[in-house]
Amino acid sequence: MAEANATNETNCLELGAFGCVDPHLERYAIWYWGIHGYLSLIICAFGITTNALNIIILTRGAMRTPINCILTAIAICDLLTMCSYIPFASHFYIECGLEATPKKYSYGWSTYMAVHSNISSTTHATSLWLAVFMAILRYVYLRTKKCCNIKQTSVICVFISVSWCSMMVPHYTLTGVSPVRATAWTV
């Protein structure tokens, strides 16, 4: 055990921005941090545009099928996830950078981070459960050649969304921000 600690101490003489890690991984993490915010904004802009187009196209009369109803619900979830991520990425990755500062972690931005965490985990999980529902619907159709109608599919999509929001209530209540008074800014 003493040898492992000695080896660990010699490999990690000083802590970097991400703690004690391999120096090559540390350099990569710092490099990626510099471009992540910008890449995220590009991906989110593309994703918001394409999901909005999906919603517009899949809700047209000729395109209304049970599977397209589920795909529309998934597009709505993904759209909300990306809309929530744009301010987060802009502030935490582009505007403030890697350093922990009072501006970066102000009460308002810390509250936004908590809200964003809840929104993204809820919409992402809902999207996954909608994909499971779609797989079940397709499996049942392949086995029986029977399928839900649009109204039944819509009700189940809403049920999945409301159910997942209800299951996330403990997470919502535990996620919070408390103001902290400190004489010096340390993280």
What does this structure look like?
The protein is mostly helical and 187 residues long. The chain has a single domain (18-174), classed as Rhodopsin 7-helix transmembrane proteins (Rhopdopsin 7-helix transmembrane proteins, Up-down Bundle), CATH 1.20.1070. Helices cover 74% and strands 0% of the residues. It is built from six helices and no strands. It has helices at residues 2-11, 23-58, 66-95, 107-144, 150-167, 169-174. The relative contact order is 0.10. The model is unreliable at 4-10 (pLDDT under 50). Its main location: membrane.
Short descriptors:
single chain, 187 residues, mainly alpha, Rhopdopsin 7-helix transmembrane proteins, 6 helices, 74% helix, 0% strand, elongated
CATH homologous superfamily classification: Rhodopsin 7-helix transmembrane proteins
Mean pLDDT score? 87
Rg measurement, Å: 22 Å
Annotated CATH architecture: Up-down Bundle
C-alpha end-to-end distance: 30 Å
How many domains? The number is 1
Question: What would the principal axes of the Cα set say about the shape?
Answer: elongated
Strand content: under 5%
How many E strands? Answer: 0
The structural class is: mainly alpha
- Share of helical residues: over 70%
Q: What name is given to the CATH topology? A: Rhopdopsin 7-helix transmembrane proteins
Low-confidence stretches: 4-10
Subcellular location: Membrane
Transmembrane segments: 35-58, 70-94, 114-141, 153-172
Pfam family, one: 7TM_GPCR_Srw
Domain G-protein coupled receptors family 1 profile: 50-187
